[in-house]
Design goal:
Two copies of one chain form a homodimer. Chain A is mainly alpha-helical. Chain A has eight helices and three strands; from the N terminus they run ααβααββαααα. Chain A has two domains: 3-94, Arc Repressor Mutant, subunit A (Orthogonal Bundle), CATH 1.10.10.10; 105-185. Chains A and B meet through helix 2, helix 5, helix 6, helix 7 and helix 8 of A and helix 2, helix 5, helix 6, helix 7 and helix 8 of B. The structure holds a DNA duplex.
Amino acid sequence: MDLASARNLPATAHVVLGLVSIRPTAGHDLAGFSERSIGNFFPIARSQIYSELERLCRLGLLSVTEVAQERRPTKRVYEVTEAGEADLRLWLEDGEVPAERNRNLFLVRVFFADRISGQRLAALLDGYEANARARRDMLAAVVEKLADRPGSAFRRATAMFGVRHAQATLDWVSDVRLVLRDMSVCGVE
Amino acid sequence: MDLASARNLPATAHVVLGLVSIRPTAGHDLAGFSERSIGNFFPIARSQIYSELERLCRLGLLSVTEVAQERRPTKRVYEVTEAGEADLRLWLEDGEVPAERNRNLFLVRVFFADRISGQRLAALLDGYEANARARRDMLAAVVEKLADRPGSAFRRATAMFGVRHAQATLDWVSDVRLVLRDMSVCGVE
DNA sequence: TTTGACATGTAAGCCGTTACATGATTTA
DNA sequence: TAAATCATGTAACGGCTTACATGTCAAA
């Protein structure tokens, strides 16, 4: 295996490696598991999962076994190798966590909101709020489900992060609605 | 101009178009302005600004004039055309705002935190907290600076969004610290 | 009979990042 | 004399998304 190439792998590869390390998985199953677990803060496209699995295999970080099934297509089940475990540990322990600069196209509309009709702006706010509320409730349910379960404190924490941020969005929407009300009272527009 | 191609432009192109529409600008100046204004929720690389400007020009949404300067290199100053104004209005009014699924590599570490040493985890939390605190304070200063200034309510709102979310992060870090304390009290690890 | 779940991929293409390249002028 | 600011780009590369392609089996 080429150590240098493994160290330059994109984050997605390491995340896939980490997911497989939880338990041996085939591509299709992993796509589902990824979506249900880290999907809320690190979505990965199915096609990319397949290609990452193949690359990790090529680099010797994963091994693959074909598993025949009755009444189902044959699966290609991947498993972490020793080299893979080592690489994962290294990435988790020593890898740097770059500060991410996330994009938010909704805020771009707010930035240009003086060019947007009041009607449209109200609709945008409503949609954004509904989205945040649904997200908050969904994640709050996850948090509740994981409460008091011993091994899931960290996964619960990631869901709680989403709850806190969705709530922040909801609070902010209220702020903005107040600002809009003040503006219309003052006769602007 | 080709309407179909304009409608398929990536968001970044429209954002650049919007920034130029605020006032005619050259690439270098626009990079600075972008960084200082929308940079906090829609960062654009300098090189990309140059290429988007060129494309928008090619599509007839911008026009360009070379402006000679004393003691400075000549600038290529871009300006929105009528077609550009129309396209921008269309994008702001009718364009869809896709729900963005942001990545957060820090949360990935939390997800895999049972494989991380307590020392490392504490360091990660400290770093994340410091980052959020700095961000919150920086944006709070922006909010304050824009207070009571008439035309800047919406830009102020975008900064307030950042404040709310940075604060949510700080609150969450406190949550996680409590969880960690409970875990160590119970003798886990 | 047709929809949906299960299962694995390929191909194309653009977006976006990073690094490179150049040169004048001001300031320390 | 060196570094920082002003100014404009090019080149390369990889990541990620979208769409395409194929086939079985169960259930409605």
